[in-house]
Amino acid sequence: MTGSRYACWVALPLLVAVWAIIALTVDTPLLPSPAEVAHAFWLAVQSGELPHHLLVTLRRVLISFALAMALGALLGVWMGRSRFANAVLDPLLVLFLNLPALVTIILLYVWFGLVEAAAVLAVVINKVPNVAVTVREGARSLDPKLEQMAQVYGFNRWQRVANVWLPQLFPYLMAATRGGLALIWKIVLVVELLGRSDGVGFQLHMAFQIFDVASILAYSLAFIAVVQLIELALLQPLERRASSWRNAGMQHA
């Protein structure tokens, strides 16, 4: 257990070492060394550009994520609990699942212009079907015996949702959350690259125009680090805390 706990601290330094060796060997501006990327990162931080554009992108990610999770969860529960709703909406769900994100982004920019609302809506439309599909499976697997118990004890709608549905749906919501965060920030970068004048995606586009690979890697790694921090500091502790009752139940069984 101890060895596996610290194994993650071996892979990343090893990757950086291999990267440095290859960069030193090929000696080309198209593959800057870790030191050059760190220098570009520091210059972007000192100028204030990196914090500004990073916060702009994070704001878009959080807004899009919250809207997509809320709408997708409601849609998934509705389709999972209603055969009629599932029969009517399933073809649309399949359609939007297979619609490329790039097409959605371009169409919304053409229809509504290069505005913030179109950017956020494009991300939400691309993520809602994924959340709905995941949560729908959870809603289908709700234990009918717990439903009967709720009726016997006279649970109202809110009590049933909070005490019966949510604990059972939690693993599916966490799966949608993790997958959603990974997908949404990638789509946000494409949205910014195509039609916004700020954000990490816009900066990557500007760096690409002059083949500034060091800046591309600096902005990319900074954003990846922030998303990974959210995963480690928020999502994983939330999952452990919310699923602790399952572990306790297994220990007492």
From TrEMBL:
The chain crosses the membrane at residues 61-80, 92-112, 206-230. PROSITE patterns: ABC_TM1. Keywords: Cell membrane, Membrane, Transmembrane, Transmembrane helix, Transport. Residues 54-234 form the ABC transmembrane type-1 domain. Its main location: membrane. It is a multi-pass membrane protein. It is found in: Cell membrane. Belongs to the binding-protein-dependent transport system permease family. This is ABC transporter permease subunit. It comes from Stutzerimonas zhaodongensis.
